[in-house]
Design brief:
Organism: Tenacibaculum jejuense
Number of strands: 10
Radius of gyration: 21 Å
CATH architecture: 3-Layer(aba) Sandwich
InterPro entries: FTHF_cligase-like_sf, LUD_dom, NagB/RpiA_transferase-like
Number of domains: 1
Protein name: LUD domain-containing protein
Structural class: alpha/beta
Domain LUD: 82-187
Order of helices and strands: HHHEHEHEEEEHEEHEE
Shape: globular
Pfam families: LUD_dom
CATH class: Alpha Beta
């Protein structure tokens, strides 16, 4: 029988192989997020120093040939002072956007935004190009924890317009009506280690 299996390349899984496949894989929040984020087409650069964040931001802008970006976050504007790029404070649908986010969702690779980042505009009406600055402390397990985090961080003044980017490949076409109009963006994530 072994000869026939080898001849016809019939592989019978051993009971040990089956047992290994049945075991659940428990990834850390950051590993889980990165896994889903990359599988959805996202690009990220990990930094441990703020100088690396500035260097990576400059590299993204130069690589894409962008002469201007939109940024309405005062803290993030400080990161752009040494980069030769024109900054527009009003977000629009033609200029790449440099922004922060509320949370990074580990179990799906999504990035959660609110009116704190995008104002009253819908993600679909904004530019296809996003550069998002986030920290490792913004990682949460799921959307529920992200919404709870927003509620806890902004007690009494909860932001509106909470939405997420779910796909990072804008060239994909999808005929699934349930996934129609999902927010797809060409997205770079500048992930800063703050823990």
């Amino acid at each position: 029988m072994n000869f026939l299996r080898k001849l016809f390349n019939i592989n019978k899984e051993s009971s040990n192989d089956k047992l290994v496949k049945k075991q659940p894989v428990n990834l850390s929040l950051d590993d889980s997020f990165v896994h889903y984020f990359i599988n959805k087409g996202g690009k990220f650069l990990y930094s441990t120093k703020i100088e690396e964040v500035v260097h990576n931001l400059n590299h993204i802008i130069v690589e894409n040939g962008w002469n201007e970006i939109s940024c309405n976050d005062i803290d993030l504007l400080k990161l752009t002072t040494t980069i030769p790029v024109t900054i527009k404070e009003k977000l629009n649908n033609t200029t790449p956007i440099f922004t922060s986010c509320e949370h990074l969702i580990a179990n799906s690779g999504e990035i959660l935004f609110s009116s704190n980042q995008i104002g009253s505009q819908k993600l679909a009406s904004l530019s296809n190009d996003f550069i998002v600055y986030a920290t490792t402390s913004q990682l949460v397990k799921n959307i529920g924890e992200g919404l709870t985090g927003i509620k806890m961080n902004f007690k009494g003044n909860i932001p509106t317009n909470i939405s997420s980017i779910k796909n990072y490949s804008i060239s994909e076409t999808n005929d699934n009506i349930l996934e129609f109009n999902q927010n797809s963006k060409n997205l770079y994530l500048l992930l800063f280690e703050d823990l």
